[in-house]
Amino acid sequence: MRVLVTTMGPLRRIVAIDDEVVEVANGATVAEAVEALVARHAGLAPHRNSILAAIDEEWSAMDATLTPNARLILMPPVSGG
Fold first, then answer.
1. Quick check: 11 and 73 in contact, CB under 8 A?
2. CATH 3.50.30.30 fits 2-75, yes or no
3. Which of 2, 7, 35, 49 is the right S-S partner for 11, CB 3.0 to 4.6 Å?
């Protein structure tokens, strides 16, 4: 199934494009989509354990199940005050 992945901040600089379609198995998790993206963009590998995710603009855990044509947003941890 296809998932549209949008990366933010430093992750976008690594990927070098705004949005990318990733093919994953039906019932795939966010973590599996991240691994598919890491396979294309090795520079993401050091960030894989700290990525925050949202599915269709709702915060999501890495073990959340994706649906066909979902929009997955990946971003680095955010801090500030």
1. no
2. no
3. 7
Domain boundaries, the chain: 2-75
pLDDT in tens, 28-73: 999 999 999 999 999 999 999 999 999 999 999 999 999 999 999 9
Global confidence as pTM: 0.91
Pairing of strands 71-75, 2-7: parallel
Radius of gyration of the chain (CA): 12
Specify the DSSP class assigned to residue 16. -
How far CA 40 is from CA of 35, 43, 45, 59, in Å, comes to 9, 9, 10, 24
